[in-house]
Request: fold
Amino acid sequence: MFRLHLHILGSGSKGNCALIEGPQGLIMVDDGLSRRETLKRMAELGLSTDNVSALLITHEHSDHIKGLDVWCKHWHGPLFASRGTLSCKETLAHLPVEEFDPGDTLSIAGIRVRTYSTSHDVINPVGYRFDALDDSIGFATDTGELSSQAMNTLKDCRVLALESNHDVTMLREGEYPRFLQERILSARGHLSNDQAAEAARELVTDRTEQLIAMHISQDNNRPSLTVKSYSKALAATLDDEVGSSATLLQGSRKLSIRPASQYQPATIQ
Reply:
């Protein structure tokens, strides 16, 4: 049986990059790492740049695009971004980009890519859902809330990569200045553990096998807190006392919950 694979090279404020492996190659999502680091992490997962069929951008914050200019000097596949996302950056406005509007559906490398609006303090941010041969991956990061469009698009995926950025108490009691706290907590900021867990109650179905906590703050969160939050919401069982992962078993159904890493690349099958 065919399955899409999600390869996460890095997820967090230090740089974001992931690849969706489909029937006709790889689709890169964001390019927030240096070319050297991207190549290194791809090699660790046995991936080749020769198989990268396209590159999709979620939004223009530097931790998602800082490697883009150099990458495109060595790679000449199609680059996709929502309307205005790259043209608003003087250093990237020269790049040839195929623009779309949130809500459009793209066909790339044998994969149906559904786009939807996210809520973040940038020009035109988007998230994605990838479908191919009855398999699906939902991808949602850098959003302060999930609209009904987003929820409808992300529901019932086999693999769901969902932002779980911060623990509200840690953020409020931490060293971030008040204005930055308010920005993160706003509807145009980032999803908290509690918000993500509440959304997961609706998004996760019997079909969902993998739930990945994305874009975890190094200052205002812990991977174990994201796992515990999702686990509590979905009545899953922690796999160890630390909370490094969790599992929900119901008859023949198995759901695995785990956090994405900023530094350790991983493949989710």
